[in-house]
Design brief:
Layout (H helix, E strand, L loop, with lengths): L37 H9 L12 H13 L2 H7 L2 H5 L9 H16 L4 H17 L7 H27 L4 H16 L7 H5 L5
Helix pairs in contact: 2-7, 2-8, 5-6, 5-7
């Protein structure tokens, strides 16, 4: 059980979830006594620190998990709680992982809104970048900076645009839950870009 010194014991965890975590809740929290989002739970499991951006989770995957956590109903959030264990150690290596992940989310949004030209363009951009970086070496500081700029700029915008479509869909809870389960399964236990991710078509 995870217990922070000097604070009250955590509440009972949802069925099937890791024991001893704070109560599942929306948005970020100042303290575990107030509850935790899915990524805060993952951080507690991974390092014991209370943050929604743990080092053990790829930033793009963490961004997706935060949006899903904040936009599903309470019962769906509780059902997703066991994913915190996998998210605590989900940082696939490989420069193509982030565009592949964003492309997966864009694909899900295009199934909701197939006529969207913006989503089509975003999907093509994700596929092109992922293909270009598929076998690229990690590189030095300049390469890491370039990848970070992509993620904080066009990568994040494309993810947010696609998630906006999914969150507004009539079956948003189901779609977001399935999507997060899919990408966590793909990332689980990998040290490189998952083969399953490579099969996802980011552009149709």
């Amino acid at each position: 059980m995870i217990a922070l010194p000097g604070h009250r014991a955590p509440v009972e965890s949802p069925a099937g979830g890791p024991s001893g975590l704070p109560a599942p809740g929306r948005f970020a929290h100042l303290h575990p006594d107030d509850g935790a989002c899915l990524m805060e739970a993952a951080a507690l499991l991974g390092t014991g620190r209370f943050t929604d951006s743990p080092a053990g989770t790829h930033p793009a995957l963490a961004a997706l998990a935060r949006v899903v956590n904040d936009n599903v109903a309470d019962d769906t959030r509780h059902a997703l709680w066991p994913l915190a264990t996998d998210l605590a150690d989900a940082r696939p290596a490989g420069r193509s992982y982030a565009p592949l992940l964003v492309g997966t989310v864009v694909d899900a949004a295009r199934r909701v809104c197939p006529a969207s030209r913006r989503l089509a363009r975003n999907g093509r951009a994700c596929r092109l970048r992922a293909d270009r970086l598929a076998d690229a070496p990690a590189g030095g500081p300049a390469v890491r900076t370039a990848d970070l700029l992509w993620w904080r700029g066009p990568g994040r915008r494309r993810l947010e645009q696609a998630l906006g479509v999914l969150c507004a869909a009539p079956e948003a809870d189901r779609l977001l839950s399935l999507l997060l389960r899919q990408v966590v399964t793909q990332a689980k236990g990998t040290t490189g870009v998952p083969a399953a991710c490579r099969e996802v078509q980011c552009n149709r």
